[in-house]
Amino acid sequence: MIMEQIQEIIQRHLENVKTKVTSQMAANNRNASGRSVASLTVEVTGNIGVLWGSKSFLAMEHGRKGGKVPKGFVGIIRQWIIDKGIAVAPIPAKTSRAILSPEERGIRSMAGAIAHKIMKEGTRLYRDCGYNDIYTTAVNEELELLAMECMDVSAQSIAEINNNL
Predict the structure, then answer these.
(1) What is the pLDDT of residue 124?
(2) Are residues 88 and 136 in the same domain?
(3) What is the largest CA-CA distance in the chain?
(4) Total domain count for the chain?
(5) Which one of 7, 52, 90, 140 is most buried, counting C-beta atoms within 10 A?
(6) Are 14 and 42 in contact (CB under 8 A)?
């Protein structure tokens, strides 16, 4: 009985964190494709709960410093440009045998420039020492509420045991 209550409490609070993170992503205009938010999943086993999500959440609050980038980073940035709907100037071909369209050439050029800038200097959020509260406040608030609720359940259980003695 008590274990089911605790699991329900953990599940509810993790779902609340997920909802708050989703709201903060929208409020901070951090949704490009929606894949990061879609990656959030809640898992409760016994008295342990985990909110799983994409590694990209690590860089969403403070940005990312320059350095090594993942394989295919230019392609990731290219997709981000498309998902965000960022306008890119087309680059005309220099020869008549061009394979790429001027639009695609422009997107790839911009993606390469952005990827290079991030690799060398980090993201703008990091360079500006910025902060987007995506998950920290939500996690802290829900942890506090979770702890209080679990203490209430434990206190009720102890009181019930004492009454039965």
Answers:
(1) 93
(2) no
(3) 92
(4) 2
(5) 7
(6) yes
Q: Based on the fold, state whether residues 81 and 118 are members of the same structural domain.
A: yes
Domain that includes residue 107, residue range: 64-129
Tell me 134's DSSP state: S
pLDDT above 90: percentage of residues in the chain: 70
What DSSP element (H or E) covers 96?
none
pLDDT band at 130 (very low <50, low <70, confident <90, very high): very high
Of 131, 124, 141, the residue nearest 28 (C-alpha)? 131
Contacts of 117 (CB under 8 A, 6+ apart): none
Structure tokens at 109: 């050029």
For residues 53 and 74, what is the distance between their CA atoms, to the nearest angstrom?
Answer: 22
- Report which DSSP code applies to 55: T
Same domain membership, residue 103 and residue 83:
yes
Q: Tokens 């019930």 label which residue?
A: 160
Q: Which residues contact 82 (CB under 8 A, 6 or more apart)?
A: 107
Q: Where are the beta strands (DSSP E) in 53-148?
A: none
Give phi and psi for 42, each to the nearest 5.
-100, 135
As given in the structure block, the two tokens for residue 62 are 């403070």
Based on the fold, state whether residues 156 and 122 are members of the same structural domain: no
